Amino acid sequence: MVSTAVRISIAGTVTLSITASPFFFNKAQDCCATSGAAAVQPGRNPIKSGSFFGCIRGRSRLKTLSMNRIGIIDYGMGNLGSVSNACKFLGMDAEIVSAPGQMDSCRAVILPGVGAFGDCMAHLTGHGFVSPIQKWIASGKPFMGICLGLQALFQTSEETPGVAGLGIFKGSVKRFLFGVGTAGPAVRGPLGERSLPLKIPQIGWNAVNQKKPDCPMFAGVDDGAYFYFVHSFYVAPEDKSIVAGETGYGLNYCSAVWKDNVFAVQFHPEKSQAAGLQMLKNFGAQK
Fold this sequence. Notes:
eight-stranded mixed β-sheet, Rossmann fold
């Protein structure tokens, strides 16, 4: 049996040594090819040192070592798949993080969410994300909230009285209250313009009017662009200066907030076609 020695250096951070038969040498080369390894030099016995298997483990850790990714927080509820797919479609290095410690290897995070405010806070607490999210935002790192991820940033919600939110912004989450048959905006159909009664939840496309056009999330997005909404509650910030976008649905309400490193929206950019993808792209460019 002919033996061959190799020395493997992965991405400048992991160095492994292998002395092996051609079979192991070929496997090591395969491992290096898929993990960005380089340099082949003399080394030591892989069976005693565990180096060959260390190469495999080293490859699996490469994503964890990256400090350039965007973390999508998985706290047991939320539209993770659609957000992740949209980010990957845009070529963004985005990964789902299911433990607070994984946030350490991210440069930006997204908090998605669908469901009830109380359930959201219970899951964030149960998964240990409450304090890490608060500290992340306080550190000045980019943060984006989507739908329930916007509402959770406030202090309280009429949906679940007595349950505290993350408290990043002062204010509350309020319920849409319409009388039966309340007319919505006029729409044009085959019989001309007419107003349709508003329904709760609001489900469908609606315009976002930019109140802070200098917000970097609106770069390349037209004022009044349409986004996809699904919700029965809306945020009411005490500080009106953080209102970045407004939408009309029986009343004009805050549909986007922006302050420093925090941007959050009531709609779903990942389901909002070109305008939504542009917004996610803008967030991915934040440092």
